[in-house]
TrEMBL record:
InterPro entries: AGP_Transferase, Aminoglycoside_PTrfase, Kinase-like_dom_sf. This is Aminoglycoside phosphotransferase domain-containing protein. Residues 85-284 form the Aminoglycoside phosphotransferase domain. Signal peptide: none annotated. It comes from Lachnellula hyalina. It comes from the Eukaryota. It holds the Pfam family APH.
Length: 383
């Protein structure tokens, strides 16, 4: 890996571009004939007229094995992700096949394979403990393969796959400037730090002097890694038969090149506070420490010490560092400590940077109890 001829290297120049692209070699045209066509935007709109929170839900064409994501918030980049991953990691990372895309009336339409299965979120409660662990092991293997994707080392950036701004939901609202693209991880961290200062300028004659106590905790030397950025169980499709297996990772809208810790911290952000997964997985007997515990502790310490995100309802600025969540009461924040088994397994795919972050001062016993529970859980999974 890392050489110019790496089979896993993604460059902007290799991506199919244009406002209207059709992949005639895809399974859609093999199944329906080379002279067939994708449904027009008008047909798509007619097929699906429902909305959720102001956004159009994907249109389903069961007979054609077709799903169409469309709307003003959809971008061509999502289709480019599907194309690139299927081309570079065809058997390692299961995703829907993309058939094409187009634009009309200010909306983007992405035509893709309709994955037959159920979400892991819907099936999780019916799985036995060992079945859950097996699914988590599958996810870990998929993540490790995904993290093999590389940029041109001479042209690295943080942003969408096509060098556009990041579209993580944390960044996409009308109150924030575009999230990149950034040339350096340091630039990304400086931008995050800037967001925390928005609204405070009226109290400081020089905004550059507004303190940010968390900025120095962010590792500017973090590797840039390809990240899904929304690995919630609702975006993991699994089989309905036995054994339970992952058949597709879906919803790549927020994906892109991020610092290597972002996958884990975003999983923390999307975890449901007090959810059944969280309470269930933290139960059970403790096992004796072993070598894996040290590895897990280092990963968890790094991941929990680095910046996580939550949007405070009143001030709408980014609250830094999930590490400090265990020391503060933030009842208005949409964030929780990591509680899902499936989210914990993400930490094992992160690079360990032992000793980079110090344990915070203050309520050390409370912090240690939280970390101990996480370490026990991870050691149970990894044994």
């Amino acid at each position: 890996m890392g050489t110019d001829d790496s089979p896993y290297k993604i460059s902007v120049g290799m991506l199919p571009s244009g406002s209207s692209v059709v992949f005639k070699e895809s399974a859609y045209f093999l199944q329906n004939g080379p002279d067939s066509s994708l449904p027009s935007p008008a047909m798509v709109r007619t097929n699906q007229c429902f909305e959720h929170q102001g956004e159009s839900l994907p249109a389903r064409f069961e007979a054609l094995n077709l799903l169409v994501k469309y709307g003003k918030e959809i971008t061509i980049a999502e289709g480019q992700y599907l194309w690139a991953i299927r081309r570079l990691l065809p058997s390692q990372v299961p995703i829907p096949e993309v058939y094409g895309w187009c634009e009309e009336g200010g909306e983007v339409f992405i035509y893709m394979e309709l994955v037959k299965g159920v979400t892991l979120e819907n099936r999780w409660e019916s799985l036995l403990k060992q079945e859950r662990i097996k699914v988590c092991e599958q996810l870990r293997a998929i993540l490790l393969e995904l993290r093999n994707l590389q940029q041109d080392p001479k042209n690295q950036f943080l942003g969408h796959i096509n060098r556009q701004p990041l579209l993580d939901i944390v960044f996409t609202d009308n109150t924030k400037p575009p999230a990149g693209p950034f040339a350096l991880v340091k630039d990304f961290h400086d931008w995050l730090s800037y967001l925390t200062k928005q609204g405070k300028e009226i109290h400081w004659p020089d905004p550059s002097l507004i303190p940010d106590p968390f900025r120095d905790l962010l590792p500017d030397d973090s590797p840039i890694t390809f990240t899904h950025a929304d690995l919630h169980p609702s975006n993991i499709m699994v089989s309905t038969d036995e054994p339970c297996r992952i058949i597709a990772i879906i919803d790549w809208h927020q994906s892109g090149w991020y610092p290597d810790y972002w996958e884990y911290c975003k999983a923390v952000f999307t975890a449901e506070p007090g959810g059944e997964w969280g309470t269930e997985i933290l139960e059970g007997p403790s096992k004796k420490p072993h070598d894996k515990v040290s590895f897990v502790r280092d990963n968890m310490s790094t991941a929990l010490s680095i910046q996580a995100v939550s949007i405070r309802q009143n001030t709408r600025f980014i609250q830094l560092t999930s590490y400090y969540l265990s020391l503060q009461s933030m009842s208005n924040d949409s964030i929780s400590l990591p509680k899902y088994t499936i989210m914990h397994i993400l930490a094992t795919a992160l690079d360990s940077r032992q000793g980079a972050i110090e344990q915070p001062r203050g309520d050390e016993k409370r912090w240690q109890r939280s970390m101990k529970a996480d370490i026990i859980l991870m050691s149970n999974i990894l044994e």
